[in-house]
Amino acid sequence: MFERPKAGERAVLVHLDMLEEKDREDPRELTELALSAGAEPVALVTGTRNQPSPRYFVGSGKLEEIRVAVIEHEAEVVLFNHSLTPSQERNLEKDLQVRVLDRTGLILDIFAQRARTHEGKLQVELAQLEHLSTRLVRGWTHLERQKGGIGLRGPGETQLETDRRLIRGRIKSIHKRLEKVRKQREQGRRARRRAEVPTISLVGYTNAGKSTLFNRISLSDVYAADQLFATLDPTLRRINLENYGPVVLADTVGFIRHLPHKLVDAFRATLEETCNASLLLHVVDASDPKRRENIEQVEEVLKEIGADDIPSLFVFNKVDRLEVAEPRLELNENGEPIRVWVSAVTGEGLKLLEQATGKLLGADMVDETLCIPPALGRLRARLYEREAVLSEEVREDGSFSVHIKMPKTDWLQLAHKEGVKLEQLTGQVC
């Protein structure tokens, strides 16, 4: 239904430095986005403006410069590193006689190419339809006329209005299907909560190395590449943390500065994995000179989706690309882990990451040696079922000295069912 640039499509890139800091983008990021979309950047037109021109976004002189670049390089598309209004996009296309895409349209195109699962494709289609609905006039100006015929004369409906109505109907249908997906995901999360299995969610700026780290920790083969938005569909894996126990690790879509609201809304079902996590691992590309700005952008999106109050641990990845950096664990004044420096590619520092994660999750853990008499054999069996037993020793009187480690809430549920208290079992001498 939607056109997408073919691989190798020649593109002229346009980047303007705006007066307002909050409106500024990164020209390097535009090049990476273009390459990720399969385009071939042939020219970069840069400039400075206090504010966008209402008609073309750029001034007349810069527009002429873009036109010359398009003709000289025989470009087929012009990519703007900014958000354009529908009228600006139409005016530019009419003047330049090539297709024009703004930053939002470019990101949507990458998402359309990368979506693999049914849910991911629905989310991308929803975002595309909502973006397209404001730009319909471009393709239908020649059909702006009333329908005629017997029984159809009168006010009627223009072709444009028909298309808008069809798109509204499709958007409504996708919302219903995504709501069903959201409920299915919530059921899965409820099941994990009942089993008291915490979820650790990897978040971070796009291309920070989340999927590579995910593969390294979970021994998976999720698609990972040195490009923006390599991951769109969330992937969950159950792993065992040393000195903690089973957890669910979630790999999620990367964030980007000025992430279009349409995408945040469309991927709400996916982002809920982040909102319901017990711990966030905020993965940062330590080799990126703009890592501080990237961190701020991720925190902004986390706040937008309501995940800013979830405990988090900074994971500074790609230390192998730094000249003077080595894997290390940094603690705050209370002795709690706050930053870990690792390399997902080489595996350096992952042991430190596991220790830090286990410590943060284990802040509310029961780590005790219990004396379990033969009469409480069922309690011992339940502890084994929950993978909570670290070691066990059988005593001469038939009792068991059992060293356990498990979440406190999990222990309280089990102890209530079996009618015992922790003090009763730890106070006895085996």
Major sheet description: 7 strands, mixed
Low-confidence stretches: 1-7, 138-156
CATH architecture of the largest domain: 3-Layer(aba) Sandwich
Strand runs, count: 14
Question: How does the helix and strand content classify structurally?
Answer: alpha/beta
| Share of helical residues | 40-55%
Q: Proportion of β residues?
A: 15-25%
The radius of gyration over CA amounts to 28 Å
Spatial sequence of strands, sheet with the most strands: 6-7-5-8-9-11-10
Helices, strands, pairings?
Elements: E1 9-18, H1 27-36, E2 39-49, H2 60-73, E3 77-80, H3 86-96, E4 99-101, H4 103-114, H5 118-132, H6 137-140, H7 159-194, E5 199-204, H8 210-218, E6 235-241, E7 245-251, H9 261-266, H10 268-275, E8 279-285, H11 291-304, E9 312-317, E10 328-331, E11 337-341, H12 350-361, E12 365-372, H13 377-385, E13 389-394, E14 400-407, H14 408-418, H15 422-426
Parallel strand pairs: 1-2, 1-3, 3-4, 5-7, 5-8, 8-9, 9-11
Antiparallel strand pairs: 6-7, 10-11, 12-14, 13-14
Helix pairs in contact: 1-4, 4-5, 5-7, 7-10
Organism: Hahella chejuensis (strain KCTC 2396)
Main location: cytoplasm
GO molecular function: GTP binding; GTPase activity; guanosine tetraphosphate binding; metal ion binding; ribosome binding
